[in-house]
Design brief:
192 residues, mainly alpha, three-stranded antiparallel beta sheet, two-stranded antiparallel sheet, 5 strands, globular
Protein backbone atom coordinates (compact mmCIF):
# COMPACT_ATOMS: atom_id res chain seq x y z
CA UNK A 1 0.00 0.00 0.00
CA UNK A 2 1.41 3.39 -0.90
CA UNK A 3 1.98 6.17 1.61
CA UNK A 4 -0.81 8.04 -0.12
CA UNK A 5 -3.42 5.68 1.32
CA UNK A 6 -1.51 4.06 4.21
CA UNK A 7 -2.62 4.19 7.82
CA UNK A 8 0.69 4.40 9.72
CA UNK A 9 1.35 7.45 11.91
CA UNK A 10 3.89 9.91 10.46
CA UNK A 11 6.45 11.66 12.57
CA UNK A 12 5.89 15.28 13.44
CA UNK A 13 8.62 17.57 12.31
CA UNK A 14 9.59 19.55 9.26
CA UNK A 15 7.16 19.82 6.34
CA UNK A 16 7.02 16.82 4.01
CA UNK A 17 5.44 16.16 0.62
CA UNK A 18 2.62 13.67 0.19
CA UNK A 19 -0.32 12.84 2.47
CA UNK A 20 0.55 11.99 6.06
CA UNK A 21 -0.63 8.46 6.59
CA UNK A 22 -2.33 9.20 9.92
CA UNK A 23 -4.63 11.95 8.69
CA UNK A 24 -8.19 10.67 8.26
CA UNK A 25 -9.21 10.82 4.61
CA UNK A 26 -12.29 12.96 5.26
CA UNK A 27 -9.99 15.61 6.73
CA UNK A 28 -7.80 15.38 3.62
CA UNK A 29 -10.71 16.05 1.25
CA UNK A 30 -11.98 18.94 3.35
CA UNK A 31 -8.51 20.48 3.59
CA UNK A 32 -7.65 19.99 -0.08
CA UNK A 33 -10.98 21.50 -1.14
CA UNK A 34 -10.74 24.57 1.05
CA UNK A 35 -7.01 25.00 0.40
CA UNK A 36 -7.50 24.70 -3.37
CA UNK A 37 -10.16 27.41 -3.20
CA UNK A 38 -7.82 29.74 -1.29
CA UNK A 39 -5.05 29.02 -3.78
CA UNK A 40 -7.36 29.86 -6.67
CA UNK A 41 -8.22 33.16 -5.08
CA UNK A 42 -4.59 34.26 -4.95
CA UNK A 43 -3.23 36.51 -7.63
CA UNK A 44 0.03 36.49 -9.50
CA UNK A 45 1.51 38.10 -12.57
CA UNK A 46 1.99 35.66 -15.41
CA UNK A 47 2.15 36.06 -19.17
CA UNK A 48 -1.11 34.40 -20.16
CA UNK A 49 -4.37 35.66 -21.61
CA UNK A 50 -6.75 36.87 -18.95
CA UNK A 51 -10.50 36.88 -19.22
CA UNK A 52 -13.23 37.77 -16.71
CA UNK A 53 -14.15 34.79 -14.53
CA UNK A 54 -10.70 33.22 -14.53
CA UNK A 55 -8.52 32.69 -11.47
CA UNK A 56 -4.88 31.76 -11.02
CA UNK A 57 -5.24 28.00 -10.87
CA UNK A 58 -2.59 25.52 -9.74
CA UNK A 59 -3.63 23.06 -12.48
CA UNK A 60 -1.93 20.11 -10.71
CA UNK A 61 -3.18 20.32 -7.11
CA UNK A 62 -2.88 16.60 -6.55
CA UNK A 63 -1.75 14.56 -3.51
CA UNK A 64 1.84 14.36 -4.71
CA UNK A 65 2.09 18.18 -4.83
CA UNK A 66 1.08 18.81 -1.22
CA UNK A 67 3.28 19.80 1.70
CA UNK A 68 2.28 18.56 5.15
CA UNK A 69 3.56 19.48 8.57
CA UNK A 70 2.40 16.73 10.87
CA UNK A 71 -1.29 16.36 10.07
CA UNK A 72 -1.65 19.89 8.70
CA UNK A 73 -1.79 20.64 5.00
CA UNK A 74 0.44 23.72 4.75
CA UNK A 75 0.54 24.28 1.01
CA UNK A 76 0.89 23.13 -2.54
CA UNK A 77 4.16 22.93 -4.48
CA UNK A 78 4.98 22.56 -8.18
CA UNK A 79 3.28 25.70 -9.48
CA UNK A 80 4.97 25.50 -12.89
CA UNK A 81 1.64 24.87 -14.65
CA UNK A 82 -0.26 27.60 -12.79
CA UNK A 83 -2.10 30.17 -14.82
CA UNK A 84 -5.49 31.62 -15.72
CA UNK A 85 -8.19 28.95 -15.66
CA UNK A 86 -11.73 28.53 -14.42
CA UNK A 87 -12.27 27.33 -10.86
CA UNK A 88 -14.20 24.33 -12.20
CA UNK A 89 -11.30 23.26 -14.42
CA UNK A 90 -8.80 23.29 -11.55
CA UNK A 91 -11.28 21.63 -9.18
CA UNK A 92 -11.93 18.93 -11.79
CA UNK A 93 -8.30 17.83 -11.57
CA UNK A 94 -8.42 17.96 -7.78
CA UNK A 95 -11.43 15.61 -7.91
CA UNK A 96 -9.70 13.34 -10.42
CA UNK A 97 -6.67 12.87 -8.17
CA UNK A 98 -8.04 13.28 -4.61
CA UNK A 99 -11.44 11.55 -4.67
CA UNK A 100 -9.93 9.74 -6.72
CA UNK A 101 -11.78 9.47 -10.00
CA UNK A 102 -8.74 8.35 -11.95
CA UNK A 103 -8.74 4.96 -13.71
CA UNK A 104 -9.34 2.09 -11.28
CA UNK A 105 -6.12 0.25 -12.10
CA UNK A 106 -4.14 3.44 -11.42
CA UNK A 107 -5.59 4.08 -7.97
CA UNK A 108 -5.60 0.40 -6.99
CA UNK A 109 -1.86 0.38 -7.70
CA UNK A 110 -1.61 3.37 -5.32
CA UNK A 111 -3.43 1.42 -2.61
CA UNK A 112 -6.95 2.81 -3.01
CA UNK A 113 -9.84 0.33 -3.11
CA UNK A 114 -12.81 2.08 -1.43
CA UNK A 115 -14.67 2.78 -4.66
CA UNK A 116 -18.06 2.65 -2.93
CA UNK A 117 -17.00 5.71 -0.88
CA UNK A 118 -16.16 7.99 -3.80
CA UNK A 119 -19.61 9.61 -3.86
CA UNK A 120 -19.21 10.78 -0.26
CA UNK A 121 -15.63 11.96 -0.83
CA UNK A 122 -16.59 13.88 -3.98
CA UNK A 123 -19.31 15.81 -2.17
CA UNK A 124 -17.09 16.46 0.87
CA UNK A 125 -14.53 17.95 -1.50
CA UNK A 126 -17.07 20.07 -3.38
CA UNK A 127 -18.64 21.27 -0.12
CA UNK A 128 -15.25 22.16 1.41
CA UNK A 129 -14.34 24.04 -1.76
CA UNK A 130 -17.59 25.96 -1.59
CA UNK A 131 -18.55 24.79 -5.06
CA UNK A 132 -21.77 26.46 -6.13
CA UNK A 133 -21.86 25.26 -9.72
CA UNK A 134 -24.09 22.67 -11.33
CA UNK A 135 -22.99 19.39 -9.79
CA UNK A 136 -24.86 17.39 -12.39
CA UNK A 137 -22.55 18.93 -15.02
CA UNK A 138 -19.36 18.62 -12.96
CA UNK A 139 -18.72 15.06 -14.17
CA UNK A 140 -18.48 16.36 -17.73
CA UNK A 141 -15.89 18.87 -16.53
CA UNK A 142 -13.81 16.16 -14.83
CA UNK A 143 -13.93 13.92 -17.92
CA UNK A 144 -13.10 16.81 -20.24
CA UNK A 145 -10.17 17.92 -18.08
CA UNK A 146 -8.71 14.39 -18.14
CA UNK A 147 -9.28 14.12 -21.89
CA UNK A 148 -7.60 17.48 -22.55
CA UNK A 149 -4.60 16.44 -20.46
CA UNK A 150 -4.31 13.21 -22.49
CA UNK A 151 -4.59 15.13 -25.77
CA UNK A 152 -1.90 17.59 -24.63
CA UNK A 153 0.49 14.74 -23.85
CA UNK A 154 -0.21 13.00 -27.18
CA UNK A 155 0.16 16.20 -29.21
CA UNK A 156 3.56 16.95 -27.71
CA UNK A 157 4.69 13.32 -27.99
CA UNK A 158 3.72 13.27 -31.67
CA UNK A 159 5.67 16.52 -32.06
CA UNK A 160 8.80 14.64 -31.03
CA UNK A 161 9.19 15.85 -27.44
CA UNK A 162 10.84 12.97 -25.58
CA UNK A 163 9.47 13.84 -22.15
CA UNK A 164 5.93 13.58 -23.53
CA UNK A 165 6.73 10.29 -25.27
CA UNK A 166 7.68 9.02 -21.82
CA UNK A 167 4.29 10.24 -20.53
CA UNK A 168 2.23 8.36 -23.16
CA UNK A 169 1.24 5.62 -20.66
CA UNK A 170 -0.15 8.40 -18.45
CA UNK A 171 -2.24 9.62 -21.41
CA UNK A 172 -3.64 6.09 -21.81
CA UNK A 173 -4.53 6.05 -18.10
CA UNK A 174 -6.26 9.43 -18.41
CA UNK A 175 -8.28 8.16 -21.37
CA UNK A 176 -9.31 5.12 -19.33
CA UNK A 177 -10.35 7.47 -16.51
CA UNK A 178 -12.54 9.38 -18.97
CA UNK A 179 -14.30 6.16 -20.00
CA UNK A 180 -14.88 5.18 -16.36
CA UNK A 181 -16.10 8.66 -15.38
CA UNK A 182 -18.56 8.65 -18.26
CA UNK A 183 -19.96 5.33 -16.99
CA UNK A 184 -20.82 6.76 -13.56
CA UNK A 185 -24.58 7.24 -13.04
CA UNK A 186 -26.02 10.76 -13.11
CA UNK A 187 -26.93 10.34 -9.42
CA UNK A 188 -23.21 10.17 -8.54
CA UNK A 189 -22.80 13.87 -9.30
CA UNK A 190 -25.92 15.15 -7.53
CA UNK A 191 -25.84 15.64 -3.78
CA UNK A 192 -28.61 13.66 -2.07
Amino acid sequence: MSAQYASARPSTGPPTRGRPASTPCWRIWKRSGSRARRGCSASTSRDAPWEPGLVIAHNDASPYNVVWQGDDLVGFVDWDTAGPFTRERDLAYVALTWVPLHARHVVVAQGFTAFEDRYRRLHLLLDAYGYEGDRSAFGLEVADRAQKNAEFIRRHAEGGEQVFRTLLPFAVNLEQAVAEIEELPDSFWVRA
